[in-house]
Write a structure and sequence with these properties.
6-stranded mixed beta sheet, globular, Cathepsin D, subunit A, domain 1, alpha+beta, 291 residues, 6-stranded mixed barrel, 23% helix, Nuclear Transport Factor 2, Chain: A
Length: 291
């Protein structure tokens, strides 16, 4: 359980940068499409209705949804895969059938979720937890998380003109960062990273601007011909001066092929954009066969 607790701590390393310093009391919803968030320590918690009963779920936007086995009855045990930012772990977990799971007016019916002992996580954040609401159920429920206003939004809300401008400005800056990578310009690439930059992937973590830059320099910039990075962003959201974005990426050369998906947090500070964190899940990686 201690290892899983560590995974969740990594998962929230980027998200908590954007969390405002409010107390644990929930906000009043601005309208029917917004659900107030609570807190478990600094981490966001939302109240779900599970078979008509209120349950407290920790929000982890890149983990697999799961239940606290102490909060639910179960039927059988099987091996399931639990995913977090930097690792997918196979474990034996109880599977619980839920008739209906609801958040506001959005509901899911006849779903099955793994249940494990989450008491250590609940103890660490200082409050009861009945489960973890992960990216799988967030997508199915059509929910986005507004960390600045501490609400869960039902459905996709149109971006304001200021958000659209902010996102466009971020995309322009990230294009320049991609060009720096493709040109093997380590100094320019380093200027894209926040001093406390975090890169998380199944292969491990890189913490800090210098460690990340040195990694890219040693792994890619010495190759001839050079590798080419291609990145396509989607599902972007602006929260204050922070923009988070999902992205698909490939890194290609005659000898290297890597492709995957990730989530990136960027922040504008003093008219410049810095990458706070990148959490990647490669789907295809390795050396190309020699011809």
């Amino acid at each position: 359980m201690r290892n899983h607790q560590g995974l969740l701590a990594c998962a929230f390393a980027g998200l908590t940068l954007a969390l405002p310093a409010h107390g644990a009391r929930a906000q009043t919803p601005a309208n029917g499409s917004e659900i107030p968030l609570q807190r478990c320590d600094r981490l966001p918690v939302v109240i779900l209705q599970v078979d008509k009963a209120d349950k407290r779920f920790l929000i982890d936007t890149a983990a697999t949804s799961m239940l606290n086995e102490k909060s639910f009855t179960s039927r059988h045990t099987k091996e399931v895969h639990v995913q977090s930012w930097n690792e997918t772990t196979a474990l034996n977990a109880r599977e619980v059938s839920i008739g209906e799971l609801s958040l506001g007016s959005h509901s899911l019916r006849a779903i099955k979720l793994p249940a494990i002992d989450l008491s250590a996580i609940a103890k660490a954040c200082g409050g009861p937890l009945d489960g973890i609401l992960g990216v799988d159920l967030l997508e199915q429920l059509g929910v986005t998380i507004d960390l600045e206003r501490s609400v869960a939004r039902l459905g996709i809300t149109p971006s304001s003109s200021s958000d659209v401008s902010l996102i466009a400005d971020m995309e322009k800056a990230m294009q320049a960062c991609s060009e720096a990578f493709n040109n093997g310009d380590a100094d320019k690439l380093a200027s894209c990273f926040d001093p406390d930059f975090l890169l998380s992937s199944p292969g491990g973590e890189l913490r800090g601007r210098d460690e990340a830059t040195n990694h890219f320099r040693q792994r890619y910039f010495g190759l001839n011909p050079r590798v080419h990075l291609s990145m396509t962003m989607s599902d972007q959201r602006a929260v204050g001066n922070v923009v988070w974005s999902l992205y698909d990426y490939t890194i290609e050369s005659p000898s290297v092929h890597t492709a995957g998906r990730g989530m990136m947090l960027c922040r504008r500070f003093d008219s410049r954009w810095y990458i706070l964190s990148m959490h990647e899940s490669p789907i295809d990686s390795g050396l190309k066969p020699a011809h």
